[in-house]
Amino acid sequence: MKTESKLFLLTAITMFVFAAVYGWWTQSNDNPAYGRPGEIEWVGTLALVFSGLLTGMVWLVFWVISRRIDPRPEDRPDGEISDMAGEVGFFSPGSYWPLGLAATAVLAGLGVVFWLPWLMVAGGVALLFATCGLTFEYYTGTRKLGPE
Fold first, then answer.
1. Which among 22, 68, 62, 73 has a CA at the least distance from the CA of 44?
2. C-alpha span between 94 and 92 (Å, rounded)
3. Cβ within 8 Å of residue 92, ≥6 positions away
4. Mean pLDDT of all residues belonging to the chain
5. How many angstroms separate the first and last alpha carbons of the chain?
6. According to the per-residue pLDDT averaged within each range, which of 28-32, 91-95, 107-111 is highest?
7. Contact at 8 Å (CB) between 104 and 93?
8. What is the CB neighbour count within 10 angstroms for residue 78?
9. Which residues contact 52 (CB under 8 A, 6 or more apart)?
């Protein structure tokens, strides 16, 4: 987790530097496209500040976790690629549920875009069913894993 922590810290610092430079740039530029001369363009500046705060929050989570767990092979200078060998996890070879998740997310998103409450509710309910279908795919039905 130390590697991820360093990456997010670097990204957060970069966002804050970009916010400062962007604020200075828009304030000192006399171009009327930026608004009145001498006035900071707040939307972009605040967007960069908030991006820095969000990546800073992720950095804090990774930093706290990295202090609580033992160093992983990718965090140690003497770590080898073979140290991470073994089973990573189970990945479904032929599931159709991700397609259903995408379709229901699009349905709910269209409800938000066109502000159709009935479509938002229908998409949200369908999204819940698709999420449950993906989660419990190998616990029920013909694809059930484990002893027969």
1. 22
2. 6
3. 137, 138
4. 88
5. 40
6. 107-111
7. no
8. 6
9. 12, 13, 14, 15, 16, 19
Residue 145: CB atoms within 10 Å: 8
**Spatial separation of the C-alpha atoms in residues 132 and 127, rounded to whole Å:** 9
Q: For the chain, how many residues are written? A: 148
- Predicted pLDDT at 144: 76
Residue 97 to residue 137: CA distance in whole angstroms = 8
Q: What is the pLDDT of residue 31?
A: 62
27-30: long-range contacts, CB 8 A cutoff, minimum separation 24? none
Instruction: Name the amino acid, one letter, at 82.
Output: S
Higher-pLDDT residue of 26 and 5 is 5
Q: Which residue has the tokens 């171009």?
A: 31
What does the block give as tokens for 24? 């200075």
Residue 11 has a pLDDT of: 97
Residue 120, both tokens: 């938002």
What span, in angstroms and rounded, lies between the C-alpha atoms of 73 and 89? 18
- What amino acid is encoded at 78 in this protein? D
Q: Where are the alpha helices (DSSP H) in the chain?
A: 2-28, 42-68, 97-113, 117-135
Return the pLDDT at 75. Answer: 83
The token duo for 130 is 């698709």
